[in-house]
Amino acid sequence: MRGFSFSNKRNSILNKSNFKAFAIFASFSFCTWLLIQFSKTYTQEFKLKVIFENFPKDKLVDEREKTVEIRVQTTGFRLFWIGFKNLSLRQDASNLPEEKNYLLYNTGYFKKEIAKELSLDISNVEFLTPSIKLPFSLKTIRELPVKPQININYARGYGAYNPLVVFPEKVKVSGPDHLLKDIDYINTQELNLKNLDKTTQGKVQLAKPHEEVILYKDAITYKAFAEKFTEGRAEVPIEIINKPQEGTLSIFPKKIEVIYQVSLRNFDQVNAQDFQVICDYAKIGENDNFMIAKLKQKPEQVTHVRLSLNKVNFVIKK
């Protein structure tokens, strides 16, 4: 009985040892076979996504992604690695040749790029799709004025005789006709210039009116003028128009003070004779004993002009 037990135990140990040896040998054999198989050269086909960018501004292209098939010849190791990659390329479409209503892309153009991406020799990559056709339609092209959204706040005692200047004043845009026909101008981004005390020049971005509208320029140049201003005053005779047919019309006062802003460099060029203040007798009410004074003429150099008073008393002597 004891001998039987010892024999069974010995056989059990031998069986376990044989199984381990067999498992090790089998694993080694499998790994060796796998290495041999993966070291061999194979040919495999893959799909490659091509994403096109920077289309010509005058063309409307709906399909911006295409898929092509490539055939790769390399070792099993590299094919296994390639199988886990998301194969895609970004390509510039700004200078693609045209064929009727298509942009034509020869896949051979990026053969070198994909070979480099996969770390392969260029001779080991073959494109099964020889070319890509991207259908396009021509966009409408218009030249629209620029409307600056530039707010200027001058420092105390400063102003500008010259208005804000932008360059260029018009920009080219392209897009679907149904969108462009309703667009009259192109806004700039909003820009606030605070406490301006000197002439300033810079760039401001243009605002896209719609996602499908292409701007041929992204920004324009602006120039905001600023110079020292001062207050000027001039006594100007009041001129009466549409005088009554009968009697003598007398007014008080006979002169009125005009108050204005002018740049220091133009201060001496402004005279009282450059202004004209009028009262229109034909516009008085039935029971009125005064007329309203209005500024009819002023020199171009002055801004923020006002009259010291606007009511002029009158009497008619028979």
In short:
This is CdaR family protein. With 318 residues, the chain is of the alpha+beta class.
Can you tell me about this structure?
By secondary structure, this protein is of the alpha+beta class. The protein folds into 4 domains: about 1-40; about 40-140, Beta Complex (RNA Polymerase Alpha Subunit, Chain A, domain 2); about 140-225, RNA Polymerase Alpha Subunit, Chain A, domain 2, CATH 2.170.120; about 230-315, RNA Polymerase Alpha Subunit, Chain A, domain 2, CATH 2.170.120.30. It is about 20% helix and about 45% strand. It is built from 4 helices and 25 strands. The protein has helices at about 1-40, 75-80, 110-115, 175-180; strands spanning about 40-55, 60, 65-75, 90, 100, 100-105, 125, 130-140, 140-145, 150-155, 160, 165, 170-175, 185, 190-195, 200-205, 215, 220-225, 225-240, 250, 255-265, 275-280, 290-295, 300-305, 310-315. The longest helix has about 40 residues, at about 1-40. The protein is rod-shaped, with a radius of gyration of 43 Å.
Report the average pLDDT across residues. Answer: 83
CATH topology assignment of the largest domain: RNA Polymerase Alpha Subunit, Chain A, domain 2
Through-space gap between termini: 163 Å
Oligomerization:
single chain
User: What's the shape?
Assistant: rod-shaped
Helix/strand-derived class? alpha+beta
Major sheet: size, sense and barrel closure?
8 strands, mixed
Helix content: 10-25%
Question: What would CATH call the class of the largest domain?
Answer: Mainly Beta
| Overall structural domain count | 4
**CATH architectural label of the largest domain:** Beta Complex
Protein name: CdaR family protein
InterPro entries: c-di-AMP_regulator, YbbR
Organism: Mesonia sediminis
Keywords: Membrane, Transmembrane, Transmembrane helix
